[in-house]
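new request in #modeling-help
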Amino acid sequence: MTEDIPANPARKALRLHREMDRIWSDLPGWRGSLASVNHSTIGLRFMATSFVFFAIGGVLAMLIRAQLATRDGAFLDTALYNQIFTMHGSIMMFLFAIPMLEGLGMWLLPKILGARDLAFPRLGALGYWCYLFGGTIILASLLLGMAPDGGWFMYVPLSGKTHTPGVSADVWLLGVTFVEISAVAAAVEIIVTILRMRRAGMGLTRMPLMGWYMLGTAAMMLVGFPPLILGSILLELERAFDWPFFDILRGGDPLLWQHLFWLFGHPEVYIIFLPAAGVLSTIIPVFARVPILGYGAIVAAVLGLVFLSFGLWVHHMFTVGIPHMALAFFSAASALVAVPTSVQIFAWIGTMWAGRVELRLPMLHVIGFFLTFVMGGLTGVMLAMVPFNWQAHDTAFVTAHLHYVLVGGFVFPMMAGITYWMPMISGRFRVRALGEAAFWLILLGFHGTFFLMHLTGLLGMPRRIDRYPGNPEWEWLNLVSSIGGMVMAAGFALFVMDIGMQWLFGRRSHRNPWRAETLDWAMALPAPPYNFASLPGPRHPDSSAILPLARGEGLLPGSPRDRREVLVTDAGTGRPDHVAVVPGNTVLPIWTAAALGSFFLLMLAGLYWLTPLAIAAILWAGWQWGGFMGSPRDAAPIPVAPGLSLPEHWQIRQTLAYSGTVTLLVADGTLYASLLFGVGFLTVIAPNWPAPESGLGLGALLAAGGALLSIAAATLAARLAETRRDRPTGATAALTGVLAAGLALALLGVLAWQLDDPRRHARDALRGVLLGHAVFHGAVALMLGLRSLCDARQGRTSRLRRGAAPVWQLFQAFWLATAALSLGLVILQEVG
Amino acid sequence: MHKGKFWAVLAVPLLAGCDGGASALSPAGPAAQQIATLWWAMLAGAGLITLLVLVLAGLALWRGPRPTGERGWIVWWGLGFTMSVLAVLLGFALWTGERMIARGDGAMQVQAEAYNWGWRFTQPGPDGPVVTEGILYVPAGQPFDIVLTSPDVIHSFWVPQLGGKMDAIPGHRNVHRLQADAPGRHEGLCAEFCGLGHAAMRFEVVVYDPAAPPAFISAERAP
């Protein structure tokens, strides 16, 4: 526990509100709304948009059910049916579930942790625009009849150019990767926010469980998405430029795609489940009126799930011909996942046991969770058993299982969460009875659809078929499922209506309607854009502090310096560390997303020669982005509380930006590790190796060695520029670093000319990717170096103010390490 | 909900009895039989566990506050109960799986090529290899290996009444061990999505009496 921090003098709450509102509000009008970066606005936009995609995915599901209701369904032709089920899965996974949980995390975390905003408000906005634009591209393809049709898992060779000509697969690869930018951005933002922006004095071990759950989720996103991003890049390179990563004739292997996809795809399930479980762990104690049972055990369970979730991707691949004993390992790991899950389930039951449960609407959805998820988990254990998996894999049984898990483990808890936090979002109570009716329709409709589908699968019905003329025995089961599906759809429509009615006609809610203890309820309803007029500290640990905080008795009250100030704390103890100024309303995120979007659209259109324009636009936007890193003056410490003044973030080494870079490099490192996995996998497993003789000669070796030396020199210079920040020497060091980085890039360009044709063999293609990786990171490092140089020359850095230099230095080191590894790998291939 | 489950359980044998051409629940070979046994055991266990958890949750919901501790819920139920069930199940499943994988014991081999969109089976005959399109002939009561390849995209070989499935992957050669108990016919299908012709990519398995094989097939085993 940290020591007490004295209270600030009380002020008029209304005057303080006006002072804060002026600085923290979004700009008025639709133009203003394009500039919003506030976490409440962005989080709600994520959730609302994901609901729209949920509705679209739901309509697609109803089309599937209409087609399958009879055995000779003539409603859709096969080509369209394939597009529809592919889009149903892709939309629900990438455009509904992930954005929904990101939105919830971004909206809720600052409130429940006692902060005013997320660590990187602009990054959140950028993520939202990437999501919206990418999702729109994917959706447009459906309207144009060019939607992806290879299944949401996009297995090669089916999704390769030979079997899927046209742009449909490119829409999936480019569109989903565009959307993934928002996932990685959200992961970085959520991790840094949880670790560095908790209320003063809130140690890690005392943070609300939602913090632990979202920390686990974000960690999994950080490590889970890069393999998919790499796989998508490789497949797009193969489709666009004929680089043969998956072509068996030239040293590729279709199984590489499956490994990369499921390295992402299985953690994905837990990425979706954990935030929902976090909602349950938050809501159940509130309605049972007792503290959660087994806080430590639940934290351990979350960490266990995060760890285990990366050890069981192969259970999606039990039928690809991997030796049985290897399968047994993954089977055991898959079954073991049930342990942390059941620890949580019993902790929740125990909590309800210890208290007296009030059956309000959110609790109904919690009951829906129990009624659904338990069965989904148990069929999951069944599917983890190798022999049973051999029978049930790719049948309707799995369809039923995954819907029990995802609807039970995500949709019901999310509905519980939405109905729970709606008073805070809308400031209103709900309208009576509609919500209950929606719940019962969804519950009955869901089980009507999916319960018998287990049986359908065991009777032999495979997934992804559109007709079954020879199997009349499946017909009544499918008809029941289709009817159940329509009932469920009606239930969801009613749920949305209930939310709308609450927004429009609900009675004004009083503060803290559920009498919860967490800090998210220590604010007026609906939540103001700044959350807390003064920030909670050790004196104000829970929702009872609502009035003192509004009166400015907490830390860092008001916005006397006319900028958005937040408190940054120590990751472990929550000790106040410094005051960070976060950016306000700006259109930079939407422009950056538009620049990124232009790149993806040009790739999609096959106008590769125009992409340098888009890349220039992205670099320009990135340059603007860094303008926030320097500051023209050394500022005096900012008074936070009587006797406590803290420095501004420009004068600190461990800034949020630094923590964010470290976090991002974890994702980046995972991407690189996935690439190394690809090299190893193809070398050892794929047919048609060894590769033909390489033409790489002495010249290439010299160019590579020279490039490596230049990178090392740039790294050294970056380090010097960081330590000697006073004007003349700092600028000289920065200039040296920039020149060395430029030289390294030029030498890498020379190396690119000497590479063997990447279309010849997978080995040559992989070398092309390794080189591209080095060039890309070199360009980013060069930008950071230029930013440091510029800031040093303009006097925007000083002995105290470090500007972009620490981040530059970190990135340089990463570039040096990966480039050296890549070069070593190529040399090893040539020698060995 | 539980009523629904038991009702479905009762319905299964009835359904399977009337027409089970593709049903994994009316097994016609040792592998399918063992998996069906595993399924029924797991179903019974899962049904009991579901009932137990829901009864506990129901009791917790509808009774007032009562004293309780972390130890009972987390350690006994969460860890102890779950891990014992899983350990037994994993052991049983591993033993079942080990018994049904292909071994190099000289069983009859049939080459199966899965292509867009059909099945081509090749096996030794009296006058050289015999190729059959869409129909797989195998002897009753003898183990046989299906050697799976694909020239185009990934397919998956599945005869639900005989056993589990195995993928046919370009560049790979997967061996799948099966056995049929008695002469008869079974439905086979492609289980991995493979494009426009996926739903219709079916084949038929004809199990013949080894004492009276069809004339065009030698009853001899492949070397």
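bot summary: The radius of gyration of chain B is 23 Å.
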